[in-house]
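User: Before I run my own analysis I want an independent prediction to cross-check against. Here's the chain; please return only the structure tokens and, at the end, one sentence I can use as a sanity check.
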Amino acid sequence: MFPIAYREEPSTDTSIGNRVRGVQSQHLPVEISQEHGGNGKPDGTFVAPKCALLFDNLRNATWRVFGAPLYTFDMRAMDIEAVETGVIYDVLRSRLALIDMLQDYEKATKEAKSKGMAEQESQIFASRKVMMKIGKNTNVGEKYVDDFIQSFDSRMKAARRLKCLLDIIGAPEVFLVSFDEEIIDDLGDIPIPEFFALSDEEWASLLSRLRDPKLQLKETCLKLSGVVNMIRKLVGLDSCELRSFLASEIQRRAKEVLGSSNDSEAEDDDYSMPDIE
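Assistant: Structure tokens:
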């Protein structure tokens, strides 16, 4: 697979931050709501939402040194603390890049139609324009052109599926789904988001399961709303009061909404979800 170039300037880049719903890369909310609690039993005991396992990296991550310039902290501390945050950010960045690519494609399609092109011609024009843009940034050699085109088609399909899930959930925090399969090797009946390998029928079935209220995915992502913005704000930020606030706030929100690894009850009968054919 050829990587899609991602414009890595979170403090000034508005191409993704301002175009993905719910994300504004230039501004933090003036007030961060304190009503972001998880689930609770009548006796006050915290119960993590069923989907919390899908966000296991997020709830275990430490953000103190994430995205800081190399001179800011001790390198050993940065290496130790960067495991979960690095994985989370790589996944988030690649998913946002796919959304950005899709939006570029849709913009190019509209441009072509405004010039009088028919539907099919507009799609061909848009595909070529976006591929040329990606090709310039990835320096694709001539002998890899076929693989590059196949990769593009696959990524476009994944991008449309990501956009579909984003529209359903209503918050880009759904792109923070990330967990270590060696640590969590049994999710029970919890559906795992997959955007590349599935057939259209399998994707439709998965989407139905991700929308199941018992999974609490939408509710959880809405409670985490704003975390993606805060994570992107940390990239390149020197050690300062804002960095300390953002790092502690991300961890506080994650713990408040997702709990700790010990709070998950993946095999609780109350959470059982029927398989959807």
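Sanity check: Residues 1-38, 265-277 have pLDDT under 50 and may be disordered.
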